[in-house]
Amino acid sequence: MYAPNIIHLGDAARSFGVPPTLDLHDAQQTVGFAQPALYRTHKFIGQKYPSFDYAGLVPVNTDGDMWDVGTLVYSGDVAGKAEYLGGKAFDVPNASINFNQGVTQFHLAGVGYELSRREVERFARMVAQNPGVTEGGSNLAERKASAARMVAEKFIYDRVIRGDTGEKNFLGMINQTVVPTANAPTGNWATATADQMSADVDAALTDVFVNTRETATANSLLIPTSKFLIANRTRMPNTDQSILKYITENNAYTAITKQPLDIRPSRELETAGTGGTGRIVAYEKNPDNMEFFLPGMFEFMPLFPTSSMTWRVDGVMNVGQFELYRPKTMSYRDNI
Questions:
Q1: What distance in Å separates the CA atoms of residue 58 and residue 291, rounded to the nearest whole number?
Q2: Cross-strand partners of 314
Q3: Over the range 139-161, which residues count as b (16 or more CB within 10 Å of their CB) and which as e?
Q4: Mean pLDDT, consecutive 10-residue segments, the chain of 336 residues?
Q5: Distance (Å, rounded) from C-alpha 140 to C-alpha 266?
Q6: Sign of the C-alpha dihedral, residues 207, 208, 214, 220?
Q7: Is residue 2 classed as helix, strand or coil in its secondary structure?
Q8: How far apart are CA 84 and CA 77, in angstroms?
Q9: pLDDT score of 164
Q10: Helices of type H across the chain
Q11: Does the predicted TM-score (pTM) go above 0.90?
C-alpha cells in the first residue's frame, strides 16, 4: 500500500540517479525532479539586484585588520594672526596649531551559509539531469557563498549610504545633519525647463565652492535616478546636448581642472530630501574630506561540521562608519 503523496518511481528511475520515491511534500525534491520529460533546461534564472558600488561613491579606508576596535582621527587648524611691530620687535605674535581628537569605532559583522548532505546530494542529481541549472554556480556551496558575499556587500553599502541610526548611531552620506541643505531654486523637475534644471544643479555645485571659501570644488554629483533619466532625455535650448552632457562639460570643477564632472544616478535619493522629496548631492570626493572605514574586508572562515550531516561556513567583516571631516565640501539641494 502506497503512502499518500509519495510517488514510487521503480527500477528504471534508479538508473538515472533519481531517488526511488519522490515526496511531494518536499519542495526541494518537487522542484528538482518534477520536470516534464519532453522539456530541456535552457538556463538558470536568478533574481537580479541593483549595484552596491559604495567604493565608487566615497573613498574607502581599508587600513587595519579584522580585529581592530577603532581608529583615532586627529584634526587641527591654524591659530594666530600677524600684527604690525614696534622697532625693537619685542611684540612679535605667535602662530600655533589647534588639535582635536576623534574616535571612529569598528564593528564586527557577518553572514554565512549552511550545507546539509541531503541538499548537496539532491543538487548534484539535479545538475546531472539538467545541466542548464549550473548557471550562477556549478555547485550548491558556490551559489550560497555568492549569496553571502552579495548580502555582505549590501550591508556595507547601506551603512555608507544611510549609516546605522538605530543600533550603532551613525549617519551616512545622504542624511548628514551638518551638511548645508536648501531647496533647489526651482525644483519639481517634472515640469521644470531645461534651463531651470541646469540652474538647480549649478546651485548645488556652487554651494561647495562658495561655502568652503574656494578651497574645495565639487567633483561628484548624485541625482535621483528618475531625475537623472529626465535630465538625460531633455535637451538644452538651441543645442543638441542633453542637460547631463551640458552639465558634465560646463561646471566649476571642469572649468578649473579640465576634468569631467562625475555624475551618477542614485535610487537612494528619490525621497531623501526634506518632506520625502528628491535630493541632489554635490561633493568633493577626497579622503581629506570624507571616508568610509572598512578595516576588515568580508572573508569566509573555514568550514566546520555542526552535525554528522550538516556543515557551516561563516563569513565575517570589520565595518567602520562614514566620516565627514569637512561638512561644507558637500551640499544637499532638495525638492527636485
A1: 6
A2: 112
A3: ebbebbbebbeebbbebbbebbb
A4: 43 40 46 42 52 91 93 70 76 74 87 91 77 61 89 96 94 97 95 94 95 95 97 92 91 87 96 97 97 96 93 95 96 97
A5: 33
A6: negative
A7: coil
A8: 23
A9: 96
A10: 10-14, 27-33, 117-129, 140-162, 194-211, 225-233, 243-249, 252-257
A11: no
Which residue from 289, 282, 293 is spatially nearest to 322, judged by alpha carbons?
A: 293
Closest to 161 (Cα-Cα) out of 153, 172, 150: 172
Is residue 51 within 8 Å of residue 154, measured between CB atoms?
no
- Give the cell for residue 315: 563569513
* CB-based contacts of 25, cutoff 8 Å, min separation 6: 5
Instruction: Give pLDDT, residue 167.
Output: 92
d(CA 11, CA 297): 51
* pLDDT score at 15: 35
Classify the phi-psi angles of 275: left when phi > 0, otherwise alpha if psi is within -120 to 50, otherwise beta. Answer: left
Rg (CA), the chain: 29
Cβ atoms of 234 and 191 within 8 Å: the answer is: no
The whole-number pLDDT of residue 48 equals 58
Cα separation, 200 vs 206, in Å, equals 10
Q: pLDDT value at position 142?
A: 84
Beta strands in the chain (DSSP E): 6-8, 21-23, 60-61, 70-79, 96-105, 107-116, 163-164, 170-171, 181-183, 220-224, 262-266, 279-283, 290-293, 296-300, 304-307, 310-319, 322-324, 330-334
> In which residue are the cell numbers 572562515 written?
301
- Secondary structure of residue 183 in the 3-state scheme: strand
Cell reading at 142: 558556490
**Cell output for 6:** 509519495
Q: Give the separation between CA 305 and CA 309, rounded to whole angstroms.
A: 8
- What integer pLDDT is reported at residue 299 of this predicted model? 95
According to the model, what pLDDT value does residue 76 have? Answer: 62
- Please tell me the distance from the alpha carbon of residue 92 to that of residue 139, in angstroms, as a whole number: 76
